[in-house]
Design brief:
The chain is of the alpha/beta class.
């Protein structure tokens, strides 16, 4: 048995399993994947030297030992909440107003879980989130109008510090009835460049990434078939058969699973990209801003 005390997030996970009767639902409430939650619970059991949860196809139920630990964990978490409220009061309103901006892909699929974890740890923090494209996020950060920004572009604009907070992969998608959905050979960059695509507006990190990939291969992109300013609009246009598009894999995950769109393999290129947090180079991150960045980085490590 490891004699060091368990971390607070593991104790929270245990109390949520007790409340919800499901490890999967507890993981969703915490904004982490079920495998990450299972790993965290196993580590807690090893640390304490106890079996805390019985898991089967009907759900998750605490053992007798688990129920006792859960009661103590609830007291610990309540005291931590009191601590954070008291600390916030001592600080006054310093670092309690957290202004964020994020590109659409990050705002839709990554940032909410980070904010949820932050607000559990620091309930006094007020968070506002502006959703826009990566170029505008970088401008807001450079001008000091936000505490922290999250972008998906291939480069970091000058004047900004950055930290990787995730990875993403772009995919070419078409409607199931599109000719590319039935082809046996992958699309190469030359053909992709010649094809009129449904794209996001200038300043979008996704659009900038694919344009840089094509330019790096010496291919001049064709005139766009359609320019739309939201991922959901691009997804819908593709599903309706308007034409192909390049989108984040995470943003079309459900569309692919339900057969609304089909992924088309592309040869000769790696379409993975980094997701980054950005802030002015002359600014030192402290308080809730520093904590949110730490949460984002740690979540990325756990999910890999």
């Amino acid at each position: 048995m490891n004699k060091s005390p368990p971390d607070l997030s593991s104790l929270l996970l245990l109390t949520l399993v007790a409340e919800l009767g499901s490890l999967g639902q507890a993981a969703e409430r915490m904004g982490i994947s079920q495998p990450a939650a299972s790993k965290r619970l196993t580590q807690l059991e090893r640390r304490l030297g106890l079996t805390l949860v019985n898991r089967d196809t009907r759900g998750s139920a605490l053992t007798v030992e688990g129920k006792a630990v859960c009661q103590w964990a609830g007291r610990v978490l309540a005291e931590v909440d009191s601590l954070m409220v008291g600390v916030a009061a001592l600080r006054g309103d310093q670092a309690l107003d957290l202004r964020l901006a994020a590109s659409m892909t990050l705002a839709e699929h990554f940032v909410p879980r980070w904010i949820g974890t932050l607000q559990w740890r620091s309930p006094g923090v007020y968070v506002s989130l502006k959703v826009t494209n990566s170029e505008q996020v970088a401008t807001l950060a450079a001008n000091g109008r936000i505490s922290l920004g999250f972008i998906e572009g291939p480069t970091v604009p000058s004047g900004l510090s950055s930290r990787q907070v995730g990875t993403d992969r772009l995919v070419v998608v078409v409607a199931a009835r599109h000719a590319w959905a039935r082809r046996r050979e992958p699309v190469d960059l030359t053909e992709l460049a010649r094809t009129r695509l449904i794209v996001r507006e200038p300043g979008s990190g996704t659009r900038e990434t694919i344009e840089r990939v094509l330019a790096g291969a010496g291919a001049e992109p064709a005139r766009p078939l359609m320019v739309l300013d939201a991922n959901v609009a691009v997804r819908r246009a593709v599903a309706e058969g308007a034409g192909p598009a390049v989108l984040s894999a995470v943003s079309v995950r459900d569309d692919l699973a339900e057969g609304r769109v089909v992924e088309v393999p592309v040869t000769g290129v790696d379409l993975r990209r980094r997701l980054r947090a950005v802030w002015p180079k002359d600014r030192r991150l402290t308080g809730a801003v520093e904590e949110l960045l730490r949460i984002a980085v740690c979540t990325h490590r756990e999910d890999r």
